Amino acid sequence: MIVVIKSDASPEKREQLIKWLKTLGLGVHESDGEFQTVLGLIGDTSKVDMDLIESLDIVDSVKRVSETFKCVNRKFHPKDTVVSVGDVKIGGGNFALIAGPCSVESERQIIEIAKAVKASGANLLRGGAFKPRTSPYDFQGLKGEGLELLKAARQETGLPIVTEIMNLKDLPLFEDIDVLQVGARNMQNFDLLKELGTLKKPILLKRGLANTLKELLMSAEYIMASGNEQVILCERGIRTYSDYLRNTLDLAAVPMLHELSHLPVIVDPSHATGIARMVPPMALAAAACGADGLIIEVHNDPSHALCDGAQSLTPAVFDGLAKKVESVRRVAA
Ligand code: PEP
Ligand code: MN
Description:
This protein is of the alpha/beta class. The protein has 10 helices and 14 strands. The radius of gyration is 21 Å and the shape is elongated. The two termini are 33 Å apart. Bound molecules: phosphoenolpyruvate and manganese (II) ion (MN).
């Protein structure tokens, strides 16, 4: 249920109302907009007397929210959420260009790539240290050592780092990581989501391989319901009948998620297509449909990459793409 408070309501009366709603056992999520305040009520609202609340002189209107996702719902929070990572802002008109290798392989590799993508305009560095691989015989990532190398690259370039956490037991190692990524295969690892919800760190939540938008939003709800409001949604392609591409990039998800939720939505054209030459056109399409950012795999030697070389851009191709992304964003704005 949401309660819209009139713009001229006195702060005392508003506080009184919030206090009273809390005595009914409800959680109250406040969202201040330019012209109105929205109170989102969380919990069992079935016994709440809507007419009584609506009759209060500070209340403009009361509406039931039928969706099961509350905290992530735009009805609860009409303004775009802007996630901050150091000086970098994501959402509400701020664009994140996240780039880097699929996996951290060596100090030289990650630092060289970090410098190159920064020079091209990337504002965040990606790189996997813990890798969820389909085969147990494939490179599983440098793990703790990979995290240290990412920190070294951050030190060298100033770029905040984004990396995937696969297992809760590794959480202590991620204390000094800027953005924690929940990979597609872990989108419904609810214990992981709940724990990440207790952190004060941005979480990049990727859509599962075969998950609906509602399921993605419910997973974001797990993080937010535990108290962490800094969630970035990521469309990375889903399984369909695609034969020549790794996945199908569901770009209509971007405007739909923006309609349903206030959270920033970014796009990963690398895992969505699996083919380097498909990445630029899909990245531009994502920028055109209003994505709040892109996460793109870039490698200095794609043919020798330990993971996902086929979909990795060279720094030179990434540089050209970054310029075009800026042009498309200007036109689409
Ligand atoms: C990744 O970003 O490295 C990754 C494994 O992506 P996804 O979880 O989307 O497959
Ligand atoms: Mn990858």
